Amino acid sequence: MRAAVYEQFQDRPEIRTVPDPLPTPDGVVLEVGATGVCRSDWHGWMGHDPDIRLPHVPGHEIAGTVVAVGADVRRWRPGDRVTLPFVAGCGRCPECQAGHQQVCEQQFQPGFTHWGSFAQFVGIHYAEQNLVRLPDSLDFVTAASLGCRFATSFRAVAQQGRVRGGEWLAVHGCGGVGLSAVMIGRALGARVVAVDIDDAKLARARELGAEVTVNSRHVPDTVQAVRDLTGGGAHVSLDALGHPQTAFNSVANLRRRGRHVQVGLLLGDQSRPALPMDAVIARELELYGSHGMAAHTYPEMLGMIESGLLNPAALIGERLSLEGGIEALVTMDRFAGTGVNVIDRF
Ligand SMILES: [Zn+2]
Ligand SMILES: [Zn+2]
Question: What cofactor does its activity depend on (predicted)?
Fold first, then answer.
């Protein structure tokens, strides 16, 4: 098969012909229909992920067709159209047994713990519990674009934040995760206030359902601006960017008994931000993380897509060849577009 392979971190991946994967007894092989290009792939290529062993093939936002099935797999057959979460749970550890595969103790992550989907084929372990059947109406590019950003955002807003109709949802950072959260919050009946430093991204947030927006560069106090606009503070607030300042603002702008969800990654020297824990106590705030979404909870999200309540296709950026995907990967720190770029030709 053709695959994008890198031998060393930060060396440009090359397209090579490598042996086709074979299914493990608990796994399947997918013919990749489409795969998203994500900042996590860039972090991996830069050498920031200790799970990666060289040489390596990136890619974890996958949609495709089952072409081979391991001996122990019962639920899946060649020809099935599927996607899967970027964290696939082992099915045996206590977290998986409790239904929390997104925090499995022995997780399989294509494109990190194993070769990923910047290739014609990809092997998937733990297939029985982690594949998700795609509705016929959902094309591969849109399914791949759900990737980690849209699905993680869905979990953050609907499952961890538990936002309800009529509540105020504040979204800090209007990149791929934040714009997804705006769309999802609106679809669940929330009133959304979007926060960013870029007027173009805030305009996009309004198109996707934000009722009001705050440009942090244009107000003296972002927290006070959100509190004023929401009549006393947000019920649910997301740090969708992953930065000490947005994390602080997201906690500080909550009303009493509000819920903060940390979705944006806090890495390196930003991993331990100062938070207003005095307010967490005095206002009984709740703090959550969101780390992907378990496969068994996908039907709720897919149902909202099928019914038209959610339209993730609106967030798709460019459709790329495998060569174009390599270029998008290695230049990601220089050209951060707003849409989700997807490879659909291998
Ligand atoms: Zn597990
Ligand atoms: Zn991703």
Answer: Zn(2+)
